[in-house]
Amino acid sequence: MKNILKPVAAFVTGLLVLTSCNNSTKQSNSKSGALASNIAEKVYVSPGEHDEFYAFISGGYSGNLTVYGLPSGRMFKEIPVFSQFPTSGYGYSEETKPMLNTSHGFVPWGDSHHPDISQTNGEIDGRFIFINENNTPRIAKIDLQSFETTEIIEVPNSAGNHSSSFVTENTEYVVAGTRFSVPIPQRDMPIKDYKGNFQGALSFISVAPETGDMDIKFQVLMPGFNYDLSHPGRGKSHGWFFFTTYNTEEASTLLEVNASQNDKDFIAAVNWKKIEEYVNNGGGTMMPAEYAHNVYDEHTHTATSTIKKEVRVVNPTDVPGAVFFLPTPKSPHGCDVDPTGEYIVGNGKLSANLTVHSFTKMLDAIENEKFDGEAYGIPILNFEDVLAGTVEQPGLGPLHTEFDDQGNAYTTFFISSEVVKWKVGTWEVIDRKPTYYSVGHLTIPGGNSRKPQGKYMFAMNKITKDRYLPTGPEMEHSAQLYDISGDKMELLLDFPTHGEPHYAAAMRADIIKERSKKIYNLEENNHPYAAKSDADTKVVRDGNEVHIYMTTIRSHFSPDNIEGIKVGDKVFFHVTNLEQDFDVPHGFAVLGQNTSELLIMPGQTKTSVWEPTKVGVWPFYCTDFCSALHQEMQGYIRVSPKGADTPIKWSMGEDIE
Amino acid sequence: MKKSNIIMLIAVILPLGLFLFPLWKITLEAPQYPTPLGMYIHINDFADANPHDIKNINLMNHYVGMKYIPEAIPEFKIFPAGILITSLIGLIIAFKGNYKWFLYWFILMVVLSGAGLYDFYLWEHDYGHNLDPKAIMKFTNPDGTQMGFQPPLFGSKNILNFRAHSYPRLGALFLGLGIATSLIAYLVGRKNSKTTEQ
Ligand SMILES: [Cu+2]
């Protein structure tokens, strides 16, 4: 044990020295006076003006996705995806509860990681954004017209769904690679027998070109490594997907040591076009599996959850020429492909250098069968044969790389808290800037496509410390925005983010902005319990269930007096917002409600269940300040004792005369 | 066919543009409506300038007790019939008539249009003044009389937090041109008849 600890201690000391070195640059970086106001102008978006870019920043452990504007750093919206969200009733309302259904039952929380925007011909098209859930493996699709989560598919045979949800250049597939290998199928077995018995599933989820409907097309069952991050090939390497691995040691305990023993781990290169062809010709086998597929219908305003029973799996050794391993130094984390598709950057997080592989060289080595052995039947290529170049001593703890439109790459260094700019092809370091502090991912708008928009770059940091006014032991994380239009990066803005800003996707605002939905058309509302006018409102008893068809409009509920409810009833408030004006939602809440309030968008119907436990006359009201008469937007529901014979009655405006 | 009769024929056809284009537009601007609310008045219909505008105008107006803008008004039957009848008369005149009849048609059209405008004014006045006594908000003029919310017949005017604009549209232009052209037809016809007399 001591033998292990010693090198670790030395390593950590080394890091501390380097980290403190770096902090000394902080002073020289602080700007003041005229220079500071010059920088302020670059991020200033005047009142009423719009930002140039949307940034969609993952919420990590909050399970959501937040929407920011760049360069202002203003937060516009929080989109609930994998977690219940009492602000709107997502995951609480009857219509949205199915969105959080899984084969493990209702899972009200998620750990969202990597958003990626849909692409057409390698360019970001702004139709959908996909994001993965790590903990209970899921992939979600968010419609960028409504900014609502409209589809969630659970990924079976997977655990720690981390190397996702990256999309191929025509959004043919969203990939979901497993971080933790597990027994497939799951079974009761000793953990110490991990080696050789656990497997890692790489799932390819197809996306229908028109509708965006998702479906797991196939899973490749890989050796029991940890598949950390991934990236689709593009341009010349379109058709391939690359996955970094760690723990090629296949250890199952104290991984910080035991998974850091091999000098090199792998980048798995997967020719998905080849496997797709194999599958289209009937290849692979259907395997029993249980996973939920949840779809939200915008016309019924309701989600449905279907449990699927099987999935197609492919053994990679059954498809010769489809999967190869590229040796990559030390536990590579990020796996990033440059816009031309030629270079694959393996960010070896414990390596002193940054390794870049060449796609052309890889194909050449495969063609000439220059293999250096195999792992579980998968050929391993020679490190030297595929190496394009090395960025020497760029920093400590490289994690992620993104690219601009000038042939430069930007890599984050977690341990030395900095972003380093280097030239693709010459591998020389051009510039370096500190981040505050402990940067994870970084994002360049369009950076995940063939056409990055290299104007801004923002780094997402894990530690906030002294950057803002303190808020007790817990601080929100932070992001830092840099101008990358010149040779040198320039720190422009420092803004807090919500949850863990794990990764982000960003793009030019205009494409999304023009297509953004303003209301739901009331005529197209096909919710089975919708009341499209006050004339449709009613209260219907069905055993101990009571369905209230209710409408809202500025500034009243209809009905606003309801009687005949009894203790022990299950009361469904089906609330339809009759408004047809942009940004006029109404809220709904009733005293003692055990779920959450609702926020109902114009033209939408949402349902809240209320199970009264006490006799009385209980008020309900609108929770969203909607008009000058918002306070008056209220009503009463009378609850009689169990077994009482109070008749069902409802009214609105009757006593006025 | 005489030149004046051809001009008269054009004069008669032009007002039919009313069936293709809106007659009038009322626009309501306010800070919380970045896209102003608007309503087109056609010869036979009220129409939204942007989807749901009329619904939203009604919602705003109910605060001060104004009635909902009706789906239809009797004028939507009378006006199209009037235009069709005057067009028919015009056609007969254009083909058979003496140039003096052009003038009579011109006068008829001016009188009818004036009556239409007056009717529109009355409707607006009723709409803006005949308020629900239980209105949520009651406003009075400085002299203590009840404030009216009548949009202008023509031009722009401030009404509480809104600025209302009321202007003719393409349909009205076609009508106006038609009427003006009939006068030209008359003048041309008169000139020609004088020349022939000599
Ligand atoms: Cu309200």
Main features:
heterodimer; A: about 650 residues; mainly beta; eleven-stranded mixed beta sheet; six-stranded mixed beta sheet; 46 strands; about 10% helix; disordered N terminus; B: about 200 residues; alpha+beta; five-stranded antiparallel beta sheet; 5 helices; elongated; binds copper (II) ion
Please provide a brief summary of the model:
The complex is a heterodimer of chains A (657) and B (198). With 657 residues, chain A is mostly beta strands.
Q: How would you portray this structure in words?
A:
The complex is a heterodimer of chains A (657) and B (198). Helix content of chain A is 11%, strand content 43%. Chain A has 657 residues and is mainly beta. In chain A, strands 6, 7, 8, 9, 10, 11, 12, 13, 14, 18 and 19 form an eleven-stranded mixed beta sheet that branches. In chain A, strands 42-41-44-45-39-46 form a six-stranded mixed beta sheet, with no helix packed on it. Chain A is globular, with a radius of gyration of 27 Å. Chain A starts with a helix and ends in a 6-residue tail after the last strand. Residues 1-29 of chain A have low confidence and may be disordered. Chain B has 198 residues and is α+β, with helices and mostly antiparallel strands. Chain B has one domain (3-197). Chain B is 51% helix and 16% strand. Chain B contains five helices and five strands, in the order αβββαααββα. Chain B has helices at 3-13, 53-61, 75-96, 99-129, 170-197, and strands at residues 24-30, 33-41, 46-48, 155-159, 162-168. In chain B, strands 3-2-1-5-4 form a five-stranded antiparallel beta sheet. In chain B, a hairpin with a 2-residue loop joins β1 and β2 (33-41). The longest helix of chain B has 31 residues, at 99-129. The radius of gyration of chain B is 21 Å and the shape is elongated. The model of chain B has no long low-confidence stretch (mean pLDDT 91). Chains A and B meet through loops of A and α2 of B. The complex binds copper (II) ion (CU). Residues 586, 622, 624, 626, 630, 633 of chain A line the site of copper (II) ion. The site of copper (II) ion has 6 residues of chain A, from loops.
